[in-house]
Write a structure and sequence with these properties.
With about 325 residues, this protein is an alpha/beta fold. It is about 30% helix and about 15% strand. It has 11 helices and 12 strands.
Length: about 325
C-alpha cells in the first residue's frame, strides 16, 4: 500500500451550488454551526502538531465550497508557508474564483481542481440544482481566470452521470487538445444520493476510454499526480485525461489519503464510515496532542483493513453524510 501522506481538508460544508451527486435536491442538510467548525487556529495546530509529525505533507482544501470560508486566502498563505508542506491544492466550483484567483496564487496556492460537469449551460444548471440565473458563464470566467493567473496543472473534474452529461464526454475530452488542461472523469458514487444513484448508476471508465480511443486514439501518459487517477493522453494533445474509477476499478491498494471534515472528523476511507476519529472534540477537551498523534498513527496502521474494496456491495449502503459533508 502507498504511504499515506495526503490529507483532504474540508473548510466548510456549505456550498453555493446543490449538485445532485453531492447535495441531492430535496434532501434536508443540517449545516454545521459556525462554532462547530474547526477554527483556523485549531486546524493549523492539528497540521503542525498531529498530521505533519505522523507523515502528512500534501494537503488539499475542499468544502462544500472552500471559497465561502472567511479568511481562506490567509489560511492558504499559512499552510503554504509551513516548511513541511510539499504540495497544497484546492478543489472549487470556481463560481467565486475570478475575483480571488490572483490572491490565492500570491498566497502560495499553485494547483487547483475545478468542477465542471457540463459545457452546456442548461445541463450545467440542471446538475448544480440552479433554478434562477444561469451560473455557467461565471464559472467559466473563474476557470479562465485561473488559467491566466498561471495555475498549473489546472484540472477540471467531471462526474459522469448516465443520461445527464455522458453525451458530452468527447466534447470535454477535446478541451485537452489545444490547452494544457487536465480533464478528470469521475465515476458517479452512491454517497448521499441513493435515489439518483439507483436510477442512474455509473458508467465504467473503460467505456469512456473506448469512446475517446475510437475518436482520436488514446495513449497512457507519463504524467502522474498525487491522486488515484489513471492518466491517458490523446496523441499530440497538450493536456491529459484522467479516469477516477472507484466503482469499476478498485484502487484501494494505492490510496494515499485521509479526509478531515470541517467539524474535525478524520475519516480514513471515503466509502467506509468505520474508524473515524473526532479530533475537534478531543482538541477542545484538552486531550494531549501526543495522544492525538498516537490515535492518528494507529488509524494509519489499520487503514488497509478499513479501505472499502468490495465495490459491488458499495451500491446499496446508506451513508450518514453526503459528499458535501464529507469533503469529497
Amino acid at each position: 500500500m502507498n504511504t499515506v501522506d495526503y490529507l483532504r481538508i474540508s473548510l466548510i460544508d456549505r456550498c453555493n451550488f446543490r449538485c445532485h451527486y453531492c447535495m441531492p435536491e430535496g434532501s434536508e442538510l443540517d449545516y454545521i454551526l459556525q462554532q462547530e467548525l474547526l477554527t483556523h487556529e485549531e486546524l493549523l495546530t492539528l497540521l503542525k502538531e498531529v498530521f505533519i509529525p505522523v507523515g502528512f505533507k500534501k494537503f488539499r482544501l475542499t468544502g462544500g465550497e472552500p471559497l465561502l470560508r472567511p479568511g481562506v486566502v490567509e489560511l492558504v498563505r499559512e499552510i503554504a508557508a509551513l516548511d513541511q508542506t510539499e504540495d497544497l491544492a484546492m478543489t472549487t466550483n470556481a463560481f467565486l474564483l475570478a475575483g480571488m484567483a490572483q490572491d490565492l496564487y500570491n498566497a502560495g496556492l499553485r494547483r487547483i481542481n475545478i468542477s465542471l460537469d457540463s459545457l452546456n449551460p442548461d445541463t450545467f444548471d440542471k446538475i448544480i440544482g440552479n433554478r434562477g440565473r444561469s451560473r455557467w458563464q461565471q464559472t467559466w470566467n473563474g476557470i479562465q481566470a485561473a488559467h491566466r493567473v498561471g495555475f498549473d496543472p489546472l484540472k477540471l473534474n467531471i462526474v459522469v452521470i448516465p443520461g445527464v452529461n455522458d453525451a458530452e464526454v468527447l466534447d470535454l475530452a477535446a478541451l485537452t487538445l489545444d490547452r494544457q488542461w487536465h480533464i478528470r472523469f469521475i465515476e458517479f458514487m452512491p454517497i448521499g444520493n441513493p435515489e439518483l444513484f439507483s436510477d442512474r448508476a455509473w458508467i465504467p471508465s473503460e467505456e469512456l476510454r473506448q469512446q475517446i480511443r475510437d475518436r482520436w486514439g488514446l495513449l497512457e501518459s507519463n504524467v502522474r499526480g498525487n491522486g488515484p487517477a489513471d492518466v491517458f493522453q490523446i496523441p499530440n494533445a497538450l493536456g491529459t485525461l484522467g479516469f477516477i474509477s472507484q466503482m469499476s476499478e478498485c484502487f484501494c491498494d494505492r490510496c494515499n489519503r485521509m479526509r478531515l471534515s470541517a467539524d474535525g472528523w478524520l475519516r480514513p476511507c471515503l466509502l467506509n464510515e468505520t474508524g473515524q476519529i473526532d479530533l475537534k472534540s478531543a482538541l477542545r477537551s484538552g486531550v494531549d496532542l501526543a495522544q492525538l498523534r498516537a490515535r492518528v498513527q494507529q488509524l494509519l496502521a489499520i487503514k488497509p483493513d478499513i479501505n472499502f474494496k468490495q465495490r459491488d456491495s458499495g451500491t446499496d449502503g446508506y451513508y450518514t453524510r453526503t459528499m458535501s459533508q464529507i469533503g469529497g
